[in-house]
Specification:
Layout lengths: L3 E8 L3 E8 L7 H12 L6 E7 L4 E7 L7 E9 L9 H20 L4 H21 L5 H10 L1 H10 L4 E2 H12 L6 H10 L3 E4 L8 E4 L2 E7 L2 H8 L5 H15 L6 H11 L2 H10 L4 E2 L11 H13 L3 E5 L5 E5 L2 E7 L3 H11 L5 H16 L1
Antiparallel strand pairs: 1-2, 1-5, 3-4, 4-5, 6-8, 7-8, 9-13, 10-12, 11-12
Length: 375
């Protein structure tokens, strides 16, 4: 279980000080905080992330520093258990959280009279963020594939393994070369591929390292909502909104073309447990906006706000009927779709002919692909 956040601030006259901790009883001593700070400022002291292992606190820390050249030198420390790694949650998710935290911190500096209120809002945000991060550990396979796509490192691993099998060591080295980043734990990244049955890890006789074989590939895309379309063809939930929904759905998909930009947008929605729960709900039926089920502590305005975001991204559509009742329809379903990577057969043949891949690895991969195809 994640431990929490410790936010510090560096000033020339006072040095490093703790600005806020959540939970309030979370304490990391100053020596450890300074160790993290020095990890950031070694070199140019630029903005960025470091991962530090704290033996005394028995924690792994994913820390973001705003940089020595920033107006305020904030350090946002996400404290995890020793066995945890930030890759479990995805770099894009943690980056978004860090940027939101910085927004609150800057607001405090700009509005000192409202400091207490803003601190209270930030504390609530940290609480909700930790709940959200815990839920990311229990994503469905469909969501984990979206998590792979949403990660730069995840997309790179997929692209590498689309070429041919690689040993874990070779993949690790190539990934660090391509990203220009130190990757402390390749197993966490690979666990997403294994969990979704995309990759098989196996030994080749005579090799000293385990090999990685891609057995399935996947795409992220939007899809018509077949159940709602069938219901609308029957005039449900009423003929007026049913007709409008069919026109909007057919109009959207007559021009829809998947793109990386759009795929990243919908992948980010898929990995958000709160949003994806509603998408799954809206796959089954349309709802009057005032009858949309609410989560614990949610009010109507929060529901309307998040629905407006989904409508702007063409995922849901709010349609008014003749009595001005607003109905929520899932305009485009968002899915991760697995497929058999037939292209690998030619890639493997080519790699062997060019002496890039040994025959033992090639035969093993082809056998695994054949077994996967039969299933």
């Amino acid at each position: 279980m994640t431990k929490g956040y410790v936010i510090t601030n560096w000033t020339e006259d006072q040095g490093l000080g703790v600005q806020l901790s959540y939970p309030g009883d979370l304490v990391v001593d100053l020596d450890d905080m300074m160790r993290i700070f020095y990890a950031h400022i070694t070199g140019a002291g630029e903005a960025g992330n470091v991962l530090v292992r704290l033996e005394k606190a028995r924690s792994n820390v994913s820390s973001y520093f705003t940089g020595m050249e920033s107006e305020n030198q904030f350090m946002i420390n996400f404290i995890m258990e020793l066995g945890e790694d930030p890759e479990i949650f995805g770099e894009a998710v943690l980056s978004d959280i860090n940027q939101n935290i910085i927004f609150y911190l800057k607001s405090m500096e700009q509005n000192p009279a409202n400091r207490l209120d803003i601190t209270s809002e930030l504390t609530e945000y940290l609480k909700n963020s930790l709940t959200y991060l815990e839920r990311l550990k229990n994503l469905t396979k469909e969501q984990v594939m979206a998590q792979i796509y949403n990660s730069e490192k995840g997309r790179m691993i997929l692209e590498i393994l689309q070429e041919r099998p690689y040993t874990k060591k070779d993949l690790h080295s190539l990934l660090e070369e391509k990203t220009g980043k130190f990757i402390p734990n390749i197993d966490i990244l690979l666990s997403h591929f294994v969990k979704t049955d995309l990759v098989r890890q196996d030994w080749i006789e005579g090799d000293s390292d385990i090999s990685l074989f891609l057995l399935s590939d996947f795409i992220i895309l939007r899809s018509p909502v077949s159940k709602l379309i069938e219901e609308a063809k029957k005039g449900l939930p009423n003929p007026y909104v049913a007709k409008k929904y069919l026109e909007l759905a057919m109009g959207y998909f007559s021009y829809y073309k998947p793109s990386k930009t759009d795929n990243l947008k919908i992948a980010s929605h898929m990995i958000n447990p709160d949003i994806f729960d509603y998408i799954v709900l809206f796959r089954e039926r349309s709802y009057p906006i005032n009858k949309v089920p609410r989560g614990p502590g949610q009010n109507f305005e929060q529901i309307r706000s998040f629905l407006a975001t989904l409508e702007a991204d063409h995922i849901v559509k709010i349609i008014k009927d003749e009595s001005d009742t607003e109905w929520i329809f899932l305009l485009t379903d968002i899915i991760s779709l697995k497929f058999y990577p037939e292209y690998l057969i030619e890639n493997i043949r080519k790699s062997v002919s060019e002496n890039i891949l040994n025959k033992e690895s090639a035969v093993k991969h082809l056998e695994l692909l054949e077994s996967s195809y039969k299933k």
